[in-house]
């Protein structure tokens, strides 16, 4: 079959003399129409630079192609070299023939325009649609990537959507032009497993319908197994192994490929949960949440104050004892992060009680966010960053506090000279370790970890999880662990709470919830977990519509009813 794209000896460099020390060296591969190649490797391996070179977006980031060719086959069968193409020719390709889904949607979406306007623009530019036709196409695109209340969400700005919803908006925009090649750079990193399965099914469906080829960049080997035809493993800008999917996954030859496969957390259906903590009824909870409700009013127009509210969190309750990890799982927009922010006081609760232990320095709850780079002020060195929470608590920066900093840096595996360095001088995993150290500066009782390892490579992720478990044992910490990765949840959680449409629908011991799910949503969630053993699977996507969180003014739901499914296992009646 004629290749859609044929790359030979691609080399890419940066800086004043890019040819001197290229970051991508001698990459070669062929991609046929309808074929998917997965680019796998850790941060800094050259995956994204390779992908950005194909549509020449690397040019806008200071990169230059210093060697090699990229032969692109036009619809009429003729070819031309993308490496030598001028900007005018590339403008006709980007979006229409080569689509792109970026990893971080917040930096890709315009913050001053509604998401509806931005999707409509994609349809205008790529398909020539105008007015109502563009608006209808945009709403259908949002429906297709399963954003609830699509017509209402069209009016939202990016900051009003969760991370997972923003990523779905990006996917809808990328597919607006029905491209012949789709470059997907970690497109499901921020998504929960059910929506991830739906997106993967959508991509597979489009491949079948349009003969669309795909370059899929990921660190999730389970996703690679489910969608890729071939795999290319990269390390330090070089391709160290490539071949057909089964050959690479079943019989890896390079030590780095073996290392990557060995670091992947495998979901075992509750068989590998932690058993190093037992609840005691005599232990006072570190935090107790009772009937938590968080609602955001919706304006009804110029002459009315509000027309209703978004019921983001509705009647949530749980407790968390010292030394225990409670994982909250659920799809994007289910209320996980809103619950955490309410506990921290970052979001105002409409009603309900949140009771925390007094805390050793009056700051009983601290938080580690998903994106460590966005959490750290780039203008402050590590010493100032670690001192921030202490200063906010009214403490003095003295010799004792500096000693505390050094102890925590050592404990999270960072060198002593880190105090004088800045965030950009650390890797992603090291920055997250800094965030963990900063969260521990005030000896908190509870640490909230909101997708704290989802942006990390699998080998780094494993090390950070081991660190979190060690710190929990050492300091008696209680963790509220928010994640969409069920394999990670299984590895770290003692108990699991499943949230759906703003409500907890199942809660209990991790072994019980993960091995014997009772609620229909929990069953769907676990069934959607990708696995390395599932090769090019057909994703069985549940099309059940997510209940709308938008309720009319004055609406109050009925009381929740629960049934006991076993010892420490409660299920909400559907």
Automatic annotation (TrEMBL):
Membrane topology summary: Peripheral membrane protein
GO biological process: peptide transport; transmembrane transport
Residue intervals of the ABC transporter domain: 7-261, 287-526
Domain of life: Bacteria
Protein name per the record: ABC transporter ATP-binding protein
Cellular compartments annotated: Cell inner membrane
GO molecular function, one term: ATP binding
Recorded GO CC terms: plasma membrane
CDD domains named in the record: ABC_NikE_OppD_transporters
Coiled-coil features, chain-numbered ranges: none
Keyword check for Hydrolase: no
Keywords assigned by UniProt, alphabetized: ATP-binding, Cell membrane, Membrane, Nucleotide-binding, Transport
Protein family (similarity comment): Belongs to the ABC transporter superfamily.
PANTHER family the UniProt entry points to: DIPEPTIDE TRANSPORT ATP-BINDING PROTEIN DPPD, OLIGOPEPTIDE TRANSPORT ATP-BINDING PROTEIN APPD
């Amino acid at each position: 079959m004629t290749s859609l794209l044929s790359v030979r000896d691609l080399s890419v460099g940066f800086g004043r003399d890019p040819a001197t020390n290229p970051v991508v060296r001698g990459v070669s591969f062929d991609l046929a129409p309808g074929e998917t190649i997965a680019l796998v490797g850790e941060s800094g391996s050259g995956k994204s630079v390779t992908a950005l070179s194909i549509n020449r977006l690397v040019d806008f980031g200071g990169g230059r192609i210093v060697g090699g060719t990229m032969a692109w086959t036009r619809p009429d069968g003729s070819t031309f070299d993308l490496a030598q193409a001028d900007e005018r020719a590339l403008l006709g390709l980007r979006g229409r023939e080569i689509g792109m889904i970026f990893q971080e949607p917040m930096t890709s979406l315009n913050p001053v325009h509604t998401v509806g306007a931005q999707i409509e623009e994609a349809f205008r530019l790529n398909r020539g649609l105008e007015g109502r036709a563009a608006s209808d196409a945009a709403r259908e695109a949002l429906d297709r990537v399963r954003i609830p209340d699509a017509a209402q969400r069209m009016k939202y700005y990016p900051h009003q959507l969760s991370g997972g919803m923003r990523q779905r908006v990006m996917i809808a925009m990328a597919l607006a032009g029905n491209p012949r090649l789709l470059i997907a750079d970690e497109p499901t990193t921020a998504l929960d497993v059910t929506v991830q399965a739906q997106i993967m099914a959508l991509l597979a469906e489009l491949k079948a319908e349009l003969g669309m080829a795909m370059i899929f960049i990921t660190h999730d080997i389970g996703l690679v197994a489910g969608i890729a035809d071939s795999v290319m493993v990269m390390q330090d800008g070089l391709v160290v192994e490539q071949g057909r999917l089964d050959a690479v996954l079943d019989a890896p030859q390079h030590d780095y490929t073996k290392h990557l496969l060995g670091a992947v957390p495998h979901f075992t259906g509750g068989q590998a949960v932690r058993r190093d903590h037992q609840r005691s009824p005599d232990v006072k909870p570190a935090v107790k949440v009772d009937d938590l409700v968080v609602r955001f009013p919706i304006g009804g127009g110029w002459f009315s104050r509000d027309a209703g509210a978004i019921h983001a969190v509705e009647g949530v309750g749980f407790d968390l004892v010292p030394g225990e990890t409670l994982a909250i799982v659920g799809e994007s927009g289910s209320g996980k992060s809103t619950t955490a922010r309410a506990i921290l006081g970052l979001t105002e609760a409409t009603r309900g009680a949140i009771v925390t232990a007094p805390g050793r320095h009056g700051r009983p709850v601290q938080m580690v966010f998903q994106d460590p780079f966005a959490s750290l002020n780039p203008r402050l060195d590590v010493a100032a960053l670690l001192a921030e929470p202490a200063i906010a608590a009214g403490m003095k920066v003295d010799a004792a506090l500096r000693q505390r900093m050094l102890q925590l840096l050592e404990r999270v595996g960072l060198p002593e000279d880190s105090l004088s360095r800045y965030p950009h001088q650390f890797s992603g995993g090291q920055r997250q370790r800094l965030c963990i150290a900063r969260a521990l500066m005030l000896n908190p009782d509870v640490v909230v970890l909101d997708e704290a390892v989802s942006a990390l490579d699998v080998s780094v992720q494993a090390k950070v999880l081991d660190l979190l478990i060690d710190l929990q044992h050492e300091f008696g910490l209680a963790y509220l662990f928010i994640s969409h990765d069920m394999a990670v949840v299984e590895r770290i959680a003692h108990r699991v709470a499943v949230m759906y449409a703003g409500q907890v629908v199942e809660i209990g011991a991790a072994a019980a919830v993960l091995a014997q799910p009772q609620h229909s949503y929990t069953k769907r969630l676990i069934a959607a977990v990708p696995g390395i053993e599932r090769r090019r699977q057909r994703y069985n996507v549940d099309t059940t519509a997510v209940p709308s969180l938008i309720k009319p003014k004055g609406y109050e739901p009925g009381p929740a009813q629960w049934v006991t499914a076993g010892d420490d296992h409660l299920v909400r009646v559907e």
